[in-house]
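ESCALATION

Customer reports they have been waiting on this structure for their group meeting. Please prioritize. Original submission:
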Amino acid sequence: IYYIIFKRGWWFEKNINYHIYFYSDFSLVGCGSNIKGKEQVKEEKQQALLEIGKFNEISPDELVKIMGEPTEKENVNLSVTPSKKIPIIYYNYKKSDMYLEFLIYNGKIVRLNLHSPTYYDSKKPNFHYQSYQELFELFGVPKESNPELIVKTPEALRFKPVEKFGEVYILGDTEKKTFWLAKITYDLSVFK
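Update from on-call: job pushed to the front of the queue and completed.
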């Protein structure tokens, strides 16, 4: 700009306002497009994978009404401590974007294991998140819940009991902010 205004002669000196207006108008157009770009990024947030609160201690019949018939059912004696086994019925659902295991004890769901697609296809990606708040938004948990992190290792995150369920335990890569398994425990007393 210096060259054009000061080195090109009297015509540019007489029309300096025109050129400054032109350049400033051009820069405003550029700024406007950057602002629009940020808005578009905000709109591209991930949708909730599953609203986990609605499965809190519901019956198997209620689960089937919500999710349909499971891909498979499995009866097991689950070791919860070295000296305690409990009879659990797994209701398993294979979806295109996740694998779900609902653990049923005494006629109600006590835990949900949510697996990323890598559970059945190693070429598919793990789930990812940018912040702990976004992590819970993936589970349909409202922002007001304000989950509190109580354990963090390179492979796991554990959160204090949150609204409508007992505990959330995440397994994955905490540095890359990805996870392959989320364990949502609705009734902690069963696993003690």
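Sent to customer with the following note: The chain has five helices and nine strands.
Escalation resolved.
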